[in-house]
Amino acid sequence: GKVALVTGAGEGIGRGTILTFAEEGAKVVVNDIVASKVENVADKARALGAEVLAIVADVTNADEVNGMVKEVISKVGRIDILVNNAYASGHKLFTQSIRADWEKPINVCLYGTLNCSRAVIEHMIERKYGKIISLISDAGRIGEPGLSVYAAAKAGILAFSRSLAKEVGRYNINVNCVSPGATNTERRIREHQAEWERATEEERQRIKKRDEAQLKLYPLGKLAEPEDVANMVVFLASEHARHITGQVISVDGGYIMIG
Fold first, then answer.
1. Can you give the residue range of the structural domain that contains 159?
2. Cβ-based burial of 128 (10 A; exposed 0-12, middle 13-18, buried ≥19)
3. Could you give the 3-state DSSP secondary structure of residue 19?
4. pLDDT at position 259 over 80
5. CA-to-CA distance for 227 and 241, rounded, in angstroms?
6. Each residue of 66-80: pLDDT tens digit?
7. InterPro entries recorded for this chain (predicted)?
8. How far apart (Å, rounded) are the C-alpha atoms in residues 15 and 8?
9. Is residue 104 situated within a structural domain?
10. For the chain, what is the domain count?
11. Is 241 within a domain?
């Protein structure tokens, strides 16, 4: 099977992507900055019969990323697929933000993607094969109030991916993006539950109305599950998608419909 490295794989879409790759017979590399989460996902992938390598590394640190990639190549022999999934966000109006608020989403989302892509690209060029799939966000395609810097970082990933696709297509390397809308990740569920628990009864009524209004924005009438996004990532990493590069595909229940 192919060797797939997934960053930010400790939970959510990253976790779903690892397990979907494992089900498809790939060798998987589980990366996150939280060791306990890495091991938990690695154990689940092994239970599916996959060969697994678990590595704790910070994608914002180029030295750690380079070390991770060298370890994978040393132990497994190659990297066929890179999934740039690690992310960080924060909900705050731009007028209320300061530079310190901007650092994490830009460093994790944008620089993390640059660090990981740079670390694998020469290896892929040498082998004349590779798939790079980066997770962006519908916020990066159409904008979202309160997520301006996160949206900027995600839009940067899209522009980078399209440019890189043009640079490395000659080497049989496909570079694409997947753009989720709101997704029922563990993090989203935790944050929603915390908001609910500290809310007054009046606030809970507002939360219910907000959630109902949000669902009306999705033609399919529901939010995505991590596996919905993972399925698209795994498709783009497959030979079924060998003639697709420089593209972004939204997996969002129809929330946005733009070319």
1. 3-183+223-251
2. exposed
3. helix
4. no
5. 18
6. 999 999 999 999 999
7. NAD(P)-bd_dom_sf, Sc_DH/Rdtase_CS, SDR, SDR_fam
8. 8
9. yes
10. 1
11. yes
